[in-house]
Amino acid sequence: MTNPFTPGSGAPPLPGAVPPANPAPPAPPSADIIEFAKLIKKGQSKARWSQNVIDRGYTMIPTILLWGQARLGLTADELNVLLQIISHWFYAGNDPHPSKGTIALRMGKHPRTVQDYITSLEKKGFLRRVERFRGSKAQEANGFDLSGLAAKLEAIAPEFAKVTSQNKTRRRKVETPAS
User: Fold this and answer.
1) Which fold has domain 61-175?
2) Helices in 40-146 by DSSP H: which ranges?
3) Residue-range domain boundaries for the chain
4) Does 47 or 22 have the greater pLDDT score?
5) How far apart are CA 114 and CA 63, in angstroms?
6) Which pTM does this prediction carry?
7) Contact by Cβ (8 Å): 4, 11
């Protein structure tokens, strides 16, 4: 199965997406890679969003990140910064690298404020800044290693799975007619 976000996969590029200058070579197909287009039934997205909205692209966000925001200790602004960074994560293995200025503009905040949120996220273990340079001295926007976020989500996933299972059991008991 091919990854639709990998260059050369035959999938069209995401509208408005700017791939990194030097993308990593495509990862070999594995059971962990799911072709996103096959997960969405034809026309299902159009029933929710207009074609103009869909054409601008979309970002896959793990639901557990949204549901687990308080459990993870993320403020609303920290979550917003993470979502902004995730929206630039085009390929697995390539760190997203939006500038603080870009994030600040989108959030309506000052770049220094965004830098404070990034520092907080780094101290909490959600991300790690990765310095990037062009040539020998020209520094570019930092990349962001999100493996800490992925590990934190993986750690709380069993708790959410357990609650989901318990809720299904409770619902079945209520829905089953009395004998």
Assistant:
1) Arc Repressor Mutant, subunit A (1.10.10)
2) 44-48, 51-55, 63-67, 69-72, 76-86, 100-107, 111-123
3) 1-58, 61-175
4) 47
5) 24
6) 0.68
7) yes
pLDDT in tens, 104-131: 999 999 999 999 999 999 999 999 998 8
Residue 23 Cα distances to 68, 81, 87, 90, 118, angstroms: 31, 23, 16, 9, 24
Alpha-carbon distances, residue 148 vs 50, 77, 81, 124, 144 (angstroms): 35, 18, 15, 9, 10
**What radius of gyration, in Å, describes the C-alpha atoms of the chain?**
19
CA atoms in the 13 A half-sphere facing the CB of 27: 14
Residue 75 has pLDDT above 90, yes or no: yes
Task: Give SS3 for 141.
Answer: strand
- Mean pLDDT on 49-74: 89
Q: Distance between CA 162 and CA 168 in Å, rounded?
A: 10
Give the CA distances from residue 121 to residues 21, 46, 124, in Å, rounded to whole numbers and listed in that order. Answer: 26, 35, 5
Is residue 147's pLDDT more than 80? yes
CA distances from 145 to 10, 131, 160 (A): 27, 10, 25
